[in-house]
């Protein structure tokens, strides 16, 4: 059997690796972007000189041949689902028995005037990075439009090259849909602390043509003109499925799939950023364009095809990012607009770059989420508490179990407990400090 | 760049240039007074002076050490020949010929003092001034460059490392050239070093080829092309320059110190203050080494303002270098005790069991005996016990001097370590081969040192002790492996078993036959070659000279026999591991890139596997640079085998019993 995987990102590659472990089928991974799988999340480090492109490839180039995973570079223009044929732009074709679509995303453009000028580009692909690199020489200012995770990465990238950055964000503080108020404010402060010209509540109206098809400035919603040589469009992404719209494949925003990641067509699956789950698990969204879900879907689809089907269940939500120098981790249900019956214990360090937030349900006392800034927590421990719906007081008293900061780092769990006591008038005491043995004992159900 | 930093850089560059220039500032005078000053044997002085008079060059002054040294060597030869035929006039009838004869090995020892004492010029006139103008100014420049960094916002400071010529690394071809040229150079010079004897360089070459064969064909690296390497598209020539400079420094230091006497001169005042004597090349080296660790240690504090682990660890290596490796030994010498570095452990400290060292310790009273006992206790108890609790990091990145230099001066180059599987395969063969070499060499030396019987610790009992130790260690490793406790390839285990059995067999043979030479080798030659190849060429020339070429831990990773020993303990029985934080890894590669030991940390982290690798020195940098907080260095006896196994349920389907890999 021949399994074709379209897309060599994390989801497609994970599927290929697991299929190789579980089956003996012929596997071909196809991509137009690069010959080999690389870590998209690490593109920024190549630009900043922390790593070379070579270093962001998680596997050595011989790995694929050794594991009998065929790689094909080429752009697929059309899929003949009836005949099970992929049609490449170059004119060649490739047949398949089963097809996994792992097409990824593409940056949003909202019809801004000038959005297709030279020097205007999102940051998603390797080619986008090359484009950015090619336009950086002599660049006097860059404007970044859209305050998400990629926007702040792009700001950090230009900043590392001492290129002044103006960062236009529609919201009144940075990323406040996802981050609670205090954390949003912390990141906002941090961006400014780095000397980045952050413009809140500012929208892009148009991008100005210099007369030769190149961007030379942007005009904001308020009519202000900002001269610049590069405009980064980072206002989110959407599934990269435009070219599949008028086919037999059922799509909405993404490609619609069931619990086994199968599309409406037989032998066709979709995973990763491009997949839209028809019936997401409670608390989860139909499209979750993050690395981790791509990886889990890759594992799941391989099991489905490999004859050991498991339902796709991403478990407790988690994510992480880094806002310049502030690491961010989240477990469970935390957002900028939390339901009214949620309360949280929030502690922030005096340096304004670290904080711990624990969200819980006021009615049931069940813990609902953890939000960490500049502090690391153990994934497995937080996940266990969330899955068990542990009570916030039990969590607080054992909070040290979750601490994952390096050795000798100051531990702030006591402060979190004190904050809770202050808020509620209770007298809890921290019973557990950081330590692997204790955490493992807890995970094995012995504490 | 901050103005202060520019000034600092300029000062540093000026100091460095002047430091090099001091080698040319001195002239060398050939006079009777200076010769008398350098050589304590009057017969020799007289003969050399006579030879110089005959040549009509007594009182001449030479412009450089390079023109002076050949002249002196000629005089030594002449004097030696003259003394051989005609004994000195004033020599007593019944005297021993050895008192006046001047064979070439004795003459060789005179070379350095003669050159140093002949030196005349600004440096010998004003050593203190020149110390400040070179070393002092260098420190000042370095600090001025570093201090403004304390004002930056704390965070990872790796911007542009791969854009800079100094830290970018070498193209594979250039790196290959350096590696090849160095190996060839060492082997060819080795023939000369061993007195035109091809045996040892030949054996070394053979073992090198054998290892290459094993890696390429048995372990199938030949099929794994292209191997990933730490090679950029463009070579950083500044890095090449830095590497060449360091290599040249070590070559001069080890094999031609007579050309760097100016540097010893400017270290003299400090040497007199500390140990009461003048500076040897080793004092000079110790002084520079310590100062570099101190200044670059401050740089580490600035770089890792936000990371307590890095700060404490750096403070620790700074302390151990300054106190244990530099000051205490010098003070001991001043007090007429043996030179002893309390933290240097055999087999890194490969001279520990040499006859002269043992004699020296045994004859130095209570303190000497304590040193002997302490050294042995560190080997037999310290290493296994502390490594069991904390991993090899307690030594490699907290205490060791080589590690100290690698973690401070070498920090800007850590990304250049090769992460390919091929490099890892080479690493395991080479480092364990060095360990075996160290064991054989030391056993040979001890064997010939120990009396045949007379005392209880005789040759025979020593061999029995070794047999039991080797058998016990191997037996335990085998048991752990068979139980599935450690994930190690069968090839490695079988070769390890084979080598151990061979060593036990040979020991048994010698025990039974009481033959003269251990392992059929001359212990003198074995240790001479070990000192040359491992002690000098590998640890020094390659170990440090290759920082800008192949990363800062080339020695620690490929060569250090103590690291091999610590690593075996860490791999087979230790509570230390690096835990991976669930599924948070984004495979970005920062951890692997900045692992100085070339461990592909990401390989494990992205699968949720804990990392238990014998080579990990626990520097903690992978954990520091991870942008997603995935890695943590931890100690615990719980669960280490299970969490480090290759197949590990990651997350979602664990409960339902489907194992995800
Ligand atoms: C700069 C950046 C930073 C990010 N950081 C994070 C982060 O920190 N954490 C996180 O969780 N997520 C992050 N993400 C998101 C994460 O990278 C994506 O969710 C993930 O890469 C999606 O993987 P995928 O396999 O679904 O698709 P992709 O990685 O996008 O792979 C799809 C591949 O398919 C190819 N392809 C598509 N159509 C065709 C065709 N017709 N013919 C041939 N080839 C085709 C594409 O060229 C592409 O190579 C980041 C994304 C970016 C861009
Ligand atoms: S694995 Fe991490 S701690 Fe170990 S040597 Fe490498 S970077 Fe240092
Ligand atoms: S640095 Fe962290 S996120 Fe990146 S590959 Fe390593 S463990 Fe994973």
TrEMBL record, chain A:
Named cofactor requirement(s): FAD
Record's keyword annotation contains tRNA processing: no
Keywords from the UniProt entry: FAD, Flavoprotein
InterPro entries: FAD-bd_OxRdtase (IPR050260), FAD/NAD-bd_sf (IPR036188), FAD/NAD-binding_dom (IPR023753)
Family matches, as Pfam families: Pyr_redox_2
Span of domain FAD/NAD(P)-binding: 1-283
GO molecular function: oxidoreductase activity
PANTHER family attached to this UniProt entry: NITRITE REDUCTASE [NAD(P)H], PYRIDINE NUCLEOTIDE-DISULFIDE OXIDOREDUCTASE DOMAIN-CONTAINING
Family, similarity comment: Belongs to the FAD-dependent oxidoreductase family.
UniProt protein name: NADH dehydrogenase
Protein source organism: Phaeodactylibacter xiamenensis
Lineage: Bacteria, Pseudomonadati, Bacteroidota, Saprospiria, Saprospirales
């Amino acid at each position: 059997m021949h399994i074709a995987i379209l897309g060599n990102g994390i989801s497609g590659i994970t599927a290929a690796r697991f299929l190789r472990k579980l089956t003996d089928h012929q596997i071909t991974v196809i991509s137009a972007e690069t010959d080999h799988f690389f870590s998209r999340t690490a593109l920024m480090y190549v630009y900043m000189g922390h790593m070379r492109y070579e270093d962001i490839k998680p596997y050595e180039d011989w790995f694929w041949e050794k594991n009998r995973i065929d790689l094909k570079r080429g752009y697929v223009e059309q899929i003949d689902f009836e005949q099970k044929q992929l049609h490449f732009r170059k004119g060649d074709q490739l047949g398949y028995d089963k097809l996994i679509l792992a097409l990824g995303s593409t940056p949003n453009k909202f019809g801004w005037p000038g959005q297709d000028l030279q020097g205007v580009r999102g940051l998603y692909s390797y080619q986008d990075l090359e484009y950015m690199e090619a336009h950086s020489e002599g660049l006097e200012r860059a404007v970044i439009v859209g305050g998400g995770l990629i926007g702040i990465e792009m700001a950090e990238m230009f900043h590392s090259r001492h290129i002044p950055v103006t960062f236009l964000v529609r919201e009144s503080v940075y990323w406040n849909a996802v981050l609670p108020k205090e954390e949003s404010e912390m990141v906002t402060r941090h961006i400014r602390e780095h000397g980045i010209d952050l413009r809140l509540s500012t929208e892009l109206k148009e991008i100005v043509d210099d007369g030769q098809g190149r961007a030379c400035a942007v005009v904001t919603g308020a009519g202000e003109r900002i001269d610049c040589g590069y405009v980064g469009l980072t206002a989110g992404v959407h599934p990269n499925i435009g070219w599949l719209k008028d086919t037999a494949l059922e799509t909405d925003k993404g490609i619609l799939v069931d619990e086994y990641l199968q599309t409406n067509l037989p032998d066709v699956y979709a995973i990763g950023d491009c997949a839209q789950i028809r019936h997401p698990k409670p608390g989860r969204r139909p499209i979750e364009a993050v690395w981790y879900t791509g990886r889990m879907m890759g594992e799941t689809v391989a099991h489905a095809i490999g004859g050991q089907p498991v339902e796709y269940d991403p478990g407790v939500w988690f994510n992480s990012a880094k806002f310049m120098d502030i690491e961010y981790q989240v477990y469970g249900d935390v957002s900028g607009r939390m339901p009214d019956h949620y309360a949280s214990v929030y502690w922030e360090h005096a340096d304004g770059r670290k904080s711990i937030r624990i969200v819980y349900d006021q009615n049931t006392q069940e813990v609902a989420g953890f939000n960490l800034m500049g502090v690391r927590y153990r994934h497995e421990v937080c996940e266990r508490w969330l899955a068990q719906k542990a009570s916030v007081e039990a969590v607080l008293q054992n909070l040290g179990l979750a601490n994952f900061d390096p050795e000798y780092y100051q531990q702030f769990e006591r402060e979190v407990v004190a904050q809770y006591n202050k808020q509620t008038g209770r007298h809890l005491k921290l019973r557990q400090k950081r330590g692997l043995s204790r955490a493992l004992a807890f995970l094995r159900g012995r504490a | 760049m901050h103005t202060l930093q520019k000034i600092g850089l300029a000062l540093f560059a000026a100091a460095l240039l002047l430091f090099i220039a001091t080698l040319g500032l001195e002239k060398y005078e050939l006079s009777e007074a200076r010769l008398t000053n350098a050589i304590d044997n009057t017969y020799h002085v007289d003969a050399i002076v006579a030879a110089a008079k005959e040549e009509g060059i007594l009182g001449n002054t030479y412009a450089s050490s390079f023109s002076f040294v050949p002249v002196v060597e000629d005089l030594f030869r002449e004097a030696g020949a003259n003394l051989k035929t005609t004994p000195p006039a004033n020599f007593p009838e019944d005297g021993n010929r050895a008192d006046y004869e001047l064979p070439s090995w004795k003459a060789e020892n005179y070379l350095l003092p003669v050159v140093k004492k002949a030196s005349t010029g600004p440096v010998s006139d004003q050593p203190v001034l020149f110390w400040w103008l070179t070393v002092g100014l260098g420190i000042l420049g370095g600090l001025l460059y570093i201090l403004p960094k304390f004002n930056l916002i704390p965070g990872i400071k790796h911007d542009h490392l791969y854009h800079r010529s100094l830290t970018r690394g070498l193209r594979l071809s250039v790196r290959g050239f350096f590696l090849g040229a160095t190996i060839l150079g060492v082997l060819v010079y080795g023939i000369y070093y061993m007195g035109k004897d091809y045996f040892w360089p030949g054996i070394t070459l053979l073992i090198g080829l054998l290892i290459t064969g094993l890696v390429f064909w048995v372990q199938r690296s030949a099929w794994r092309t292209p191997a990933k390497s730490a090679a950029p598209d463009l070579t950083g020539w500044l890095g090449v320059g830095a590497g060449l400079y360091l290599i040249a420094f070590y070559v001069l230091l080890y094999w031609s110190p007579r050309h760097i006497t100016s540097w010893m001169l400017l270290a003299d005042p400090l040497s007199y203050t500390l140990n009461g004597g003048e500076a040897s090349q080793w004092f000079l080296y110790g002084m520079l080494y310590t100062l570099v660790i101190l200044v670059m240690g401050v740089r580490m504090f600035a770089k890792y303002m936000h990371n307590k682990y890095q700060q404490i660890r750096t403070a620790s290596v700074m302390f151990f270098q300054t106190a244990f490796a530099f000051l205490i030994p010098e003070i001991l010498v001043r007090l007429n005790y043996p030179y002893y570095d309390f933290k240097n452990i055999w087999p890194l400290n490969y001279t520990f069991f040499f006859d002269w060292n043992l004699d020296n310790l045994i004859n130095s009273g209570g303190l000497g005996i304590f040193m002997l006992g302490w050294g042995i206790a560190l080997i037999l108890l310290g290493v296994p016990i502390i490594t069991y609790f904390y991993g090899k990091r307690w030594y490699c990145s907290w205490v060791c001097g080589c590690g100290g230099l690698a973690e401070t001066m070498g920090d800007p180059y850590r990304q250049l370590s090769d992460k390919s599987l091929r490099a890892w395969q080479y690493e395991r063969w080479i480092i364990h081969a060095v360990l075996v070499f160290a064991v054989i060499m030391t056993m040979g030396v001890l064997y010939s040192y120990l009396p045949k019987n007379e005392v209880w610790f005789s040759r025979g009992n020593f061999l029995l002790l070794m047999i039991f130790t080797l058998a016990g260690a191997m037996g335990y490793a085998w048991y752990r492996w068979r139980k599935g406790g450690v994930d190690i390839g069968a090839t490695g285990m079988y070769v390890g078993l084979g080598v151990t059995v061979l060593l036990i067999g040979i020991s048994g043979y010698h025990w039974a036959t009481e033959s003269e030479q251990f392992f059929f080798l001359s212990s003198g030659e074995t240790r001479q070659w070990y000192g040359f190849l491992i002690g000098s060429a590998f640890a020094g020339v390659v170990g440090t000279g290759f920082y800008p070429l192949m990363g800062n831990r080339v020695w620690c990773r490929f060569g250090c026999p103590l690291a091999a020993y610590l690593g075996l303990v860490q791999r087979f029985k230790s509570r230390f591991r690096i835990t991976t934080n669930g599924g948070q890894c984004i495979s970005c590669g920062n951890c692997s890139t900045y692992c100085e030991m070339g461990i592909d940390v990401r390989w494990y982290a992205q699968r949720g596997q804990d990392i238990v690798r014998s080579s990990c020195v626990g520097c903690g940098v992978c954990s520091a640079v991870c942008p997603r907080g995935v890695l943590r260095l931890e100690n615990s006896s719980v669960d280490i085998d299970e969490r480090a196994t290759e197949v590990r349920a990651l997350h979602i389907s664990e409960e339902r019993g489907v194992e995800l890999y």
